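Let's do one together. I've listed all components of the complex below, 724 residues spread over two lines.
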Amino acid sequence: METLDVKTTVEKERQEEAVVAHNTRLGVVLFLVYVVFYGGFVALSAFAPERMSEPFLGGVNLAVVYGFSLILVALALALIYMKACRKSST
Amino acid sequence: MIHETSLMAICIFLFFAATVLGISFYLGRRARSVRGYFAAGGAIPWAVNGIAFAGDYLSAASFLGICGMIAFFGYDGFLYSIGYLAGWIVALFIIAEPIKRLGRYTFADALDNKFNSRGIKLSAAISTLVVSCFYLIPQMVGAGALARPLLGFPHTLGVLVVGCIVTIIVITAGMVSTTWVQFIKGSLLVVLCALLTVLILARGVTTRPTDSTGRPRTLAARNVSLDHLPGTALPEEGPWSGKPYVRVKDANGIVTIWRKDADGTFSETQAVAVRPDGRKFVNGLPHGRKPGEADLHPVGYVSKLPGGVEKTGALGPFAFLRTMQESEVILWRSDKITEADGSTTTVYYQNPTPGKDFMAPGSSPTFHKVRGTTFFDKLDFLSLMLALFCGTASLPHILIRYYTIKDQLSARRSTVVGIAAIGFFYVLTLFLGLGAMTSGSLDVTDSNMSAPLLARSINEFMFAVLSAVAFTTILGTVSGLIMAASGAVAHDLMTNLLEMKMDESRQVRAAKIASLCVGIVAIALGILFARMNVNFLVGWAFNIAASANLPALVMLLFWKRTTKQGITAAIIVGMLASLAWILLSAQAYRDVYDLDPAKAVVPFSQPAIVTVPLGFLVLVAVSLLTQRPQSADH
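Okay, and this is what the predicted structure of the assembly comes out as:
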């Protein structure tokens, strides 16, 4: 089958397996952190919508505060990921 | 509502269009190789790519649809913002690195990297085409629908202008020009929305809205007693009997409709009647702006502010949100009444809504079931939030952007820039939507016009710039979609699947011809679907992408026993199951076939909660059945 592969060859980045494994593990951990946070928002909206309309921070309700936090936390986790990822030494 | 055309908007749009076309021709020489055409030679700087992510992703649906939904219903529109942004987390943490590591030019490349299977190539290419088409139709129809109110062009001309400009952009320099168009559009959109938000906060909120020249808006009457109605009440008969409306005939014989409120008083409505011969009447008069004609008047204002004040003055972002929560706003709802002769009357009525209600999930018809009592009621909402979360990282036109940069470090950096720009924009959508809701300038018949009309309530220049940017928005997203679709045709199907032997320049030529064909198809779809409500197709595209592509991508990366047959089966089953579910849903019954939504076959409209797990299940089952002996070595 290999001979039938007519794809153009492109010079790929060389990757050390340890680096790939570290970055993958880090990604999965941060992903799970966010899933819990996002899941909490979805669950609250679905099963306790009245709680979402109560003032939460500085008079602003929980729905808005949680919504903004989801956006800010996404950015914060993305920055952590970028800093903590390893780069292949080659 | 009839909108005045802005010559300035046309001039600014033509300036943007000329700029992006100029850039495309200038960059044309950089796209002579296959890698140059499909992946911009992998040489796009990460910061530019990050903003281009925003330009690619923030479609007309994001921009106009979300602002409109917030303006009409409140917080529920913001749920889309949250879901669309959260999806980027899947893209960054799970998909970005491997897609860059495994792929070359297209999504199929990455999936097929390990197997070199014709089944995967074919199914991934088809799923790319299906998802891109579902995404493309609302963009093109949106271009046509916005062309008239924003630029004064008829629908067909709007579609043609967008289709031709985008096709030229893609053909001249492929991914190079597409990237720069998306970069320009992404920057313009975010900067303009930030500016608009500042202007909204500086203006504050008032119970007496004015237009941009300071002239007070006409506010629809409320709390009118029966004796003070402007004429005599007609008897309730035919389809009007049992409805909460009274038809009032004035001295000139003009009939207006008033709604009976719970406290026994009446409130003014706006009614659009369409006769069987197609003639349109607004509030009892022929539709128009000439003497003896009537047009709908703009709506949306705060009826009660905290402390009973008439205006707040400039507000900080948190004070603005707090004020909205403690206010009461006149939102509008509609009701359709069909007479025996086939004529229809759409009644738009006032619905005073407290901030506590519209600033929390469940205030719109789309999500009202979230406030229901049974678990079953909530499934539609849960399913959509899952589709938005899983869909982003499976959209082919987003994935191909990972091939335009140098390495994985750049992939991560550009995703972070993308998340920052897109997240910032989505925070702004809440302010823009609420600003439009209280601007006194909304068109009750068209929520998509909310953001441009908000800009018009500030001044004509903002309207012109926003209209031109809204149109440029469509250019950016459509060019990304055409790139993804033409990559599937030229690279996945022609070069890889059919193994057509072509040298480098022929491959580029094939890609350009494919782009031209996809462009023509896009124009045809935009004209063909003109009369259909197509905004929900974006939600469908997310559902199909999540169901067909995500299980294959994730399992390929994390389960070593995945086989090529498993991937092929998961893509096909995920795609067909979600498509079938959607076509049998209440939403399709109502919006596509015009049938009674209660008769829909499937219990809720958004399939992801069923079809994403189904995709995973099929992949695991088929992979286990098709294990080859050497797979055991892993």
